Amino acid sequence: MQTDNYRFGSDLPALVKTLAQIFPRFAVQLNHLSEGRICGSHNAAEAPPAAGLYQAGDYLRNSAPAVQGAAGGRYVTKGWICVHSGEPGTWVEDRGLTGE
């Protein structure tokens, strides 16, 4: 059976694998919501996204944190937070001071 250029069942193993990767992330989000948290965390990356639809409040963790800045003002970029929804949204750094 073929509908709209998709043959049912032909990509079932790939679909199952994809769902197995996605469902654990959904479970974490649902658990956080059930605990009263609002969580919009996405996968980690080395830079804020340049494409895709994001909502204000979404958070992207930095997968390559490093100490930056001059002595007396060193910091680590922990991640980025979306402050204005859009494609890809407006992202600002979430910095943590090192105390150095």
TrEMBL record:
Domain of life from the UniProt record: Bacteria
Protein name per Swiss-Prot or TrEMBL: Uncharacterized protein
Protein species of origin: Comamonas terrigena
